[in-house]
Structure formats: C-alpha cells, structure tokens
Amino acid sequence: MRVARILIATTALAAGVSLIVSVPAGAHSHKAEPKTTVLTTAVGAPFNLEVRGDKVWVADGGPGLIGKVKADGTVKTVVSGVTGASGLALSGNGKYLAYTTTDGGPEGITASGLTITGPRGYQAQADTLAHETTNNPDGAVSYGVENPTQCVTDELTRIGLPVSYTGIVDSHAYSVAALGRGFVVADAGSNALLRVNRSGDVSTLAVLPAHAAKITAEAAGALGLADCVVGVTYRFEAVPTDVEVGGDGFLYVTTLPGGPEDPSLGARGKVFRVNPWTGKVKEVAGGLLGPTNLAISGGRLYVAELFAGRISVIRHGAVAEYLPLPGALAIEAGRGGSLYAATGITGPPSVVRIDTKSGWRR
Fold first, then answer.
1. Which end of the chain is more exposed for a tag (fewer CB within 10 A), N or C?
2. Are 314 and 300 in contact (CB under 8 A)?
3. Which of 59-63, 134-138, 262-266, 312-316 has the lowest mean pLDDT?
4. Contact indicator for 272, 281 with CB cutoff of 8 Å
5. For the CA atoms of the chain, what is the radius of gyration?
6. Quick check: 202 and 127 in contact, CB under 8 A?
C-alpha cells in the first residue's frame, strides 16, 4: 500500500496539477560548489537519465516519452506514447533499449512492465504486474505495527495508515539498469528487484526489507496522532526508486519509505547494496530525505534527495551534501567521472551537467 506516493506524480503532471511540497533548505558549505550547466529545460518530469558518451537520454514522465537531449537544448523524441515513463537503460553497446511503462494512478496500477527494443525491429514485453499477481514477492513481509493497542489501532486508522498487513499485490516498474545480457527492474509496487531477460521473462532477484522506524513525539504531532502512538515502531515499506550496477558487480538501490514520503516524519530514505547472485540485501546508508535516484562514479555514491533539494555523496556510510539542487530528481554518471542530473516536481524541470572538476569534493 502507498500513502502519498510521490512516484505517482506522473499522473498529476499529465493532468496539469501543481504539486506543492515544503522543501527544507540544505546545509550550504562555505567552499566553492561544483558548477552546473543547463543542457535543457524542454522536459516535464525527467525521472531518469542514461548517459552514453556525450549523449544524454531521458525518461520523461510529463509528455510520456524517451528522448535524447540535443546540443541546441531541444529533446529529440526516440519513443513517444510511453505511459508513465520513468526508467530507461541501454545494453549491448547501446543496441538494446529498455524502458518502463505504468498505467494507473493513486487509485491503483492497472498495467506495468518493461519494453525492450533491439536490432532489426526486435521487441519484447515484460509484464511485471503479471509476475506480481502470480508471485507477490513481498507477500510474506510484515508491515505496520506488531501487536498494536486499541488506541494505536484507532489513531492509525483515523489518518488512513494501515495498522498491520503483509505485502499486497502491486506493481510499479519504476527504474531499470542493464545487468549482464538482461536487465534489473526496481519495482516500486512490489518493493523488490526483478530480473528480466531480453525475451521479457521476469523473476524475483531480491525483496527489500521493511523500513522500521519509531514514531517520535514530533512525528506524531505532525500527523495529529495521540500520545499512545509515540514510541511505537512502524514497519514502513521499502519503495525502490533506482538501481545501479557498481564496479564491484553488486547492485545499489535507493528506497523511499512507504507511508508519508515527504519531510513530515523526517529523513528516512535508505540506500541498499544487493548481491545479484544471492539476493542478499545490506543497508549502506540511511537518513536520506526523498532519495529518488543514484549514480556511482569514482568509487562514490551520489544520491538525488528530492525533498532536501540537493545531490548528496555517500562514503563509508556517511551522507554529506555535494551540491544544492532544488528539485533534484535524477542523477547519472558519465564518462571521465562526469555527472548529469535532472530536476523537477519540486523545482523547475531541467537536465544539467555537473562539472566535477570544479568546486570541491568530499
């Protein structure tokens, strides 16, 4: 179940609805910041980027397309009519393109999956919703409160937060990365990573663990909850927003906490490291505010924190601000240690190049 899921923002954008989110100011360093160059503002909701050489690809959930950013600032449409466009990846030296599609909205997803195109008109479809319906990867994971009192039950029910439940049938193929001769999909509905081969066959690679958090007095106050809820541990869903393959061959995944994903309950987003051979999951870092995307460059993890309005860098589990960037939505590594980012939802939409040789690096 999702409450205030930001990933459904595509629907609101397509309908022309304004999303207003209170974004806390990030901590600013007195040292020089890396310079950014705007490549385009001709995007609506650039949820993901892919960089090959000097070419920047974008999955734009606003107009629903996969495109390439051109030197003149326009975006050339590669695939149009991509419902719920949010993720893309290239493999096989760029011969194969995979992109996610999702149909539905806050009331429920009606279709979701991955489209794979290749040489000589090759095309395959992976139906992640069908896989979810048959397997429900997180169906054995417990969410909510264990052994709640009647007061806790009443209070959570009153604000529409489920009290206790196991994973429901829900698929939202959100991000994708090339992995070997196939792909891995971060499914924000099933709370899992799915392996997809080039023929479109789907299997579960890993299920992400619940985000357990104690409800503080401050959080209870923000949600208008009674004192009986203070100190209660709530197991939120781990909603994957991006997946990347590291130089070590392992997968790195950003996750939003299910439930209120805005700043009301604090910085609860996480990054996990996943063994692609065994599915074993290990937490790398926490305390992130709306981590919607990540990139790996120079042995560092860079994370787009949407609600913090910044790009952060993670080293040895420690999170630090790398660059203030209002509306930070996506981040991708290019050649030579370069970084590219996209903004939107809580800030003006754009795609920018980050000069990693300027300013400073932690």
1. C
2. yes
3. 262-266
4. yes
5. 19
6. yes
Alpha-carbon span 251 to 210, nearest angstrom: 18
Give the integer Cα–Cα distance in Å for 158 and 60: 36
Work out the pLDDT band at 92, boundaries 50, 70, 90: confident
What percentage of the chain's residues is helix, strand, coil (to nearest 5)? 10, 45, 40
SS3 for 115? strand
Band (10; pLDDT cuts 50, 70, 90): very low
209 Cβ contact list (under 8 Å, min separation 6) = 141, 238, 281
Count other C-beta atoms under 10 Å from residue 123's C-beta: 10
What residue segments make up the domains of the chain, in order of their start?
6-355
Backbone angles phi, psi at 207, to 5 degrees: -105, 130
- DSSP bridge pairs for 116: 98, 124
Task: Identify any residues that bridge with 186 across adjacent strands, giving them in sequence order.
Answer: 175, 193
Continuous segment of H or E residues that includes residue 173: strand 173-179
SS3 142: strand
Distance CA(59)–CA(79), nearest Å, equals 10
State whether residue 13 is helix, strand or coil.
Answer: helix
pLDDT: which is higher, 124 or 30: 124
The pair of three-digit structure tokens given for residue 160, joined into one six-digit string = 């529409």
* CA 196/CA 262 separation, integer angstroms: 31
Distance between CA atoms of residues 185 and 45, nearest Å: 19
Identify which of 257, 325, 354 has the alpha carbon closest to the alpha carbon of residue 25: 325
Question: Rounded to an integer, what distance in angstroms lies between the CA atom of residue 79 and that of residue 122?
Answer: 14
CA atoms within 13 A on the CB side of 40: 24
**Nearest Cα residue to 235 out of 160, 166, 159:** 166
Distance CA 3, CA 78 (A): 33
Exposure string of 335-350, with b = 16+ CB inside 10 Å and e = fewer, is eeebbbbbbbbbbebb
Q: What is the DSSP letter of 68?
A: E
CATH 2.40.50.100 fits 6-355, yes or no: no
